[in-house]
Amino acid sequence: xxxxxxxxxxxxxxxxxxxxxxxxxxxxxxxxxxxxxxxxxxxxxxxxxxxxxxxxxxxxxxxxxxxxxxxxxxxxxxxxxxxxxxxxxxxxxxxxxxxxxxxxxxxxxxxxxxxxxxxxxxxxxxxxxxxxxxxxxxxxxxxxxxxxxxxxxxxxxxxxxxxxxxxxxxxxxxxxxxxxxxxxxxxxxxxxxxxxxxxxxxxxxxxxxxxxxxxxxxxxxxxxxxxxxxxxxxxxxxxxxxxxxxxxxxxxxxxxxxxxxxxxxxxxxxxxxxxxxxxxxxxxxxxxxxxxxxxxxxxxxxxxxxxxxxxxxxxxxxxxxxxxxxxxxxxxxxxxxxxxxxxxxxxxxxxxxxxxxxxxxxxxxxxxxxxxxxxxxxxxxxxxxxxxxxxxxxxxxxxxxxxxxxxxxxxxxxxxxxxxxxxxxxxxxxxxxxxxxxxxxxxxxxxxxxxxxxxxxxxxxxxxxxxxxxxxxxxxxxxxxxxxxxxxxxxxxxxxxxxxxxxx
Length: 504
Known about the structure:
It is built from 17 helices and 14 strands. It has helices at 16-24, 26-34, 42-45, 111-121, 136-148, 164-168, 185-194, 209-222, 236-246, 265-268, 278-281, 293-302, 323-331, 416-420, 431-445, 453-460, 462-471; strands at 102-107, 126-132, 155-157, 175-178, 198-201, 226-228, 253-261, 311-318, 349-355, 360-366, 378-381, 384-387, 392-395, 477-478. The strands form two sheets. An eight-stranded mixed beta sheet has the order 13-12-11-7-10-9-8-14. It starts with 15 loop residues before the first helix and ends in a 26-residue tail after the last strand.
C-alpha cells in the first residue's frame, strides 16, 4: 500500500452497511493480523455471507520455502512430499454465482489501480461501491471518476495501512480488486476470501511459497476464487497463438519462452511514479525473478499447464547486480536515501522450467539494464515456431527456405474476444479491457473463470524458487503441485468457447 495519509475526524464516507460490516469483521481482523504466514482458522470466523461455505478449522499450514534472503533451499523431498493435505475441495472448474450486477471494492489507487477504474466503469453491470488507499487524495480522485460515470459515491477507506480489512468486511461487495505493492497482496487476498469475497490480484500473487499455499487453501475452504489478474494472457498475439496451439498448428509442443525485460531504472528511482521506493527495495532482498507472471502465464496457457500438464521444476541463474548501482551513480545526487541501499537482485535472471510432459519453458527477468521492452512470447513445436517482439512465425507446410512468415496472415485465428472487441479502450494495447470484460462476463453469467488460484500460484512460484535456485548455484527447485493432482484432468481455460446467446 501507499504511505498513510491523515484523515479528518469529521469525514463521513461510509455507508450504513459498511459500518455494520466493520463491527462484524473485528474478529476477522485480529485473526488476519496474528496468523501471517500460517493457515487461518476459518471455523472460528464463520461464514461471512450466505454464499461463503463454512469450513472446519484447519491445522496451521507449513512454510514450504524459507523466508527470502535466508539462504535456505526449497523443499527437495520429491513431488508428493511438497504437497500438504487438502483442507477443502478443489476450485478447479467451479463457476461463479450468477449475478446481474458485480459490486466491486478496489484496494490501491496508485498508477495501476487508478488506471483500471475507468475500464471497470465502462462495463455494464459493474458498480464500484468502495475504494481504499491510505493516501486520501488518491481515494477522492478515484471516487470522483465513479460519480462522473453516474454511479453513487463509493465508500472510502483511508484510515491507514489496515483499513482494507474494513472494506473486505462489507456485506455489499462481490469482488475485491487488489493493486498495491507486492508484499501486501497475500494478506489482502486472504482478507477478501475470509470475508466471503472473490478476489483478483495484480501480479505477483505473493512473495513466499507458504503464502501461495495459504491462498490456495483459503480459496478451497471459503469457496471463493482468488485469481492472478494476468493481463498478458489476454494480449491479441497471445490469444491468437493460444488458439493455434490448441488446434495443433504447432504440432506437438516442445518449448516456449516468456519474459519481463523492461527497463524500469528511471521509474524505480523516480520520486513521483511509485509511492515510495518499495519496488526498488525488492532488488535489495531477492536475487531471482521478481516478476515472472507476464511471461509465464501465456506460455503456461499454450501448454495447458494445470490442465493436462504441470510445471515440475525450475532452475535459475542470475548475472551480477550492477545496473541499478550504475544508474544511481549517474543520476542520483549525493545524500539521496538510495545511496544506503545494496542491490543483490540479478540484472538478468534466466530460468528453465520443466513440465511433467518434458517440455521446457525459458523465463527471463531484467528491469535494471538498458534494452527495448520484450516479453519474448515464444512457442515451438514439431511443426514450427512463433516468436514475438517483433511478431513472426514459421510453420510447415506454410513456410520454407528458413524465412520467417507474416504473423498478420493468421488473423483468422484471433480469439472471439478480439474479434468482437477489435479496438478495445485502455492501456497495454487493449489487453486490460479484454481481461476485465471477460472477468465481469464470467461473473454475471455464472461461468467458470478462465484461470484460478492454482494458476496464480504456479505462475508466481518462480519468485521464491528462482531466488533459492540462484543461491544454490542453479540447482533445480521443485514447483509444488498446487492442484493436488487435478492437473491431470483436461479442462477449459483462457481458450474457452464464446458463451451462447450473448450479444456482442
